[in-house]
Design goal:
Elements: E1 2-8, E2 17-20, E3 40-44, H1 51-73, E4 94-102, E5 105-113, E6 118-126, E7 132-138, E8 141-144, H2 148-160, H3 167-173, H4 179-191, E9 192-195, H5 197-200, H6 206-220, H7 224-233, E10 237-246, H8 265-268, E11 281-291, E12 294-299, H9 305-321, E13 326-329, H10 338-349, E14 359-364, E15 372-373, E16 376-377, E17 384-389, E18 395-399, H11 411-416, H12 429-454
Parallel strand pairs: 3-14, 3-17, 9-13, 13-14
Antiparallel strand pairs: 1-2, 1-4, 4-5, 5-6, 6-7, 7-8, 10-11, 11-12, 15-16, 17-18
Helix pairs in contact: 6-9, 7-9
């Protein structure tokens, strides 16, 4: 569970920006829960306000945790994207901090980088409410865990950590037996899941979805949330089934020998069948539709991009809800109908369907999520954030709670009227100029037609 995220000097984020996910209003908590972070948080704002850059900063942090040793080996530096709209920021450092709650223990992990190296890095745990240093790093100087066993394991890792690699990544790859370190790394690698326009481009390749489905089924079994999403989407899909197909490694293999006809090696008995115990399998998803003449099935490969997107969301849902992870979606409204987006939000708000307190964090232009469904707020007051950009191109982030909203106020209408800011200021000058040119052109064309008629 993500409690707090802070970042500075990343793309349009110039100064420190904080996404604080602690609950503000006890009365808005989902009934029967005592979660220390909100289960849902959405960022709203005008185009190019920097909403996606907040998500991108968190994605960058996760990518560096998972891949920094590989990037260091390739000599790619830190691959950061600092603020570029002044002469100072590109030469200043960028930093990223995430506060997490994992198995009842709070952790704070962060790092500071420039274009070439890791300048500082740290991991603190709070098992009894008091800060405990797991490790601290200042350039190439390290201070490691308090226990003798942890100190010995981490000191060995510190000696081989490159200046442009994260110590957390190196320790995890070395499998240093430090529980707190392993938990934080695992959260970034397995429990933090991203969806959005970048990942949607992969939906044209069904084998990616099937690979994800196979991986998910091997770990967790049948994706139960898929049925809920398909029904909520009202696609006319009654149900689904997953077929496990045993692959024959020699099927359709016909080696060509120069100067000789094609030979079916398997049929000729030139190869011995692979034992069934080691034969690979693949999973095929079939969706049952309601047709005019009854039910019929289609494979996932024959479905629309929209249906594939829902399958992808279902797989991500299973991954995070099964262990209390965090699903981060950039542009939630880009691939889901508003009713389906509201359904997804409601799923995370429901402790029965979300027993481990998984989180949904997203950006969106869909202001209907600020309204109500069946008389209940879709998003609570402490789950709404706004992004805006000042005249210097710098993004800021602020919560609805700063305005001390009443529980019963119409937040959708107030946002659209500009009461909370973070809405575009429309300048009609360009549109009027176009209309004026169009009018002049229209008059000229009409004059030409009249002249032709007279001729």
């Amino acid at each position: 569970m993500l409690l707090n995220f802070r970042v500075a000097n990343h793309r349009s984020i110039r100064d420190e920006l904080e996404w604080q996910l602690h609950p503000v209003y006890d009365g808005d908590r989902p009934t029967g829960t005592f979660w220390q972070a909100v289960p849902v948080a959405g960022i709203f704002g005008s185009n190019a306000a920097g909403k996606s850059n907040v998500v991108d900063a968190l994605r960058y942090m996760a990518t560096m945790v998972i891949r920094s040793p590989l990037l260091a080996e390739d000599g790619e530096g830190m691959r950061r994207q600092p603020f570029l709209l002044d002469t100072v920021a590109p030469s200043e450092s960028s930093w990223y901090v995430a506060d997490l709650l994992l198995r009842g223990v709070r952790y704070s992990y962060g790092f500071e980088v420039d274009d070439e190296n890791v300048l500082s890095e740290w991991l603190y745990s709070y098992p009894t409410g008091r800060k405990r240093v797991v490790f601290e790093r200042d350039g190439e100087d390290f201070r490691v865990g308090s226990s003798e066993r942890e100190a010995k394991a981490l000191t060995t890792v510190a000696e081989v950590t490159a200046p442009n690699a994260l110590f957390l990544s190196m320790a995890a790859r070395s499998r240093a037996s430090v529980t707190s370190l392993a938990r934080v790394y695992r959260w970034f690698r397995e429990e933090l899941v991203f969806r959005g326009p970048a990942s949607e481009r992969r939906l044209g390749h069904p084998h990616v979805l099937m690979r994800n489905l196979a991986s998910r089924m091997n770990r967790l079994g049948e994706p139960a949330h898929l049925r809920d999403l398909l029904r909520a989407a009202d696609l006319g899909i009654e149900d689904f089934r997953v077929e496990t197909v045993e692959e024959d490694p020699f099927e359709n293999r016909r080696p060509r020998i120069k100067g000789q006809p094609v030979v079916d090696v398997k049929a000729a008995g030139a190869m011995v069948d692979t034992p069934r115990s080691v034969r690979p399998v693949r999973h095929e998803l079939w969706l049952r539709h309601t047709g005019r003449n009854g039910s019929f099935e289609l494979p996932l490969t024959a479905e629309s991009l929209g249906t594939k997107a829902i399958v992808e969301y279902a797989l991500a849902l299973e991954q995070v809800t099964s262990r209390g992870g965090t699903l981060v979606v950039d542009e939630l409204d880009s691939s889901l109908h508003p009713r389906l987006s509201a359904f997804l939000v409601g799923l995370f708000q429901d402790p029965e369907r979300n027993p481990h307190g998984a989180q949904l964090l997203f950006t969106s232009h869909d202001v209907s999520l600020l309204g109500r469904k069946a008389g209940e707020d879709i998003l609570k007051r402490d789950q709404i954030w706004f992004a805006s950009k000042n005249e210097f191109g710098e993004t800021s982030l602020y919560p609805l709670s700063d305005f001390r909203p009443r529980q019963d106020e119409n937040r959708e209408r107030r946002y659209l009227s500009g009461s909370y800011g973070a809405v575009p200021v429309i300048d009609d000058t360009f549109a009027l100029a176009i209309a004026g040119r169009g009018g002049a052109g229209g008059e000229a064309a009409e004059t030409g037609r009249q002249e032709d008629t007279e001729a």
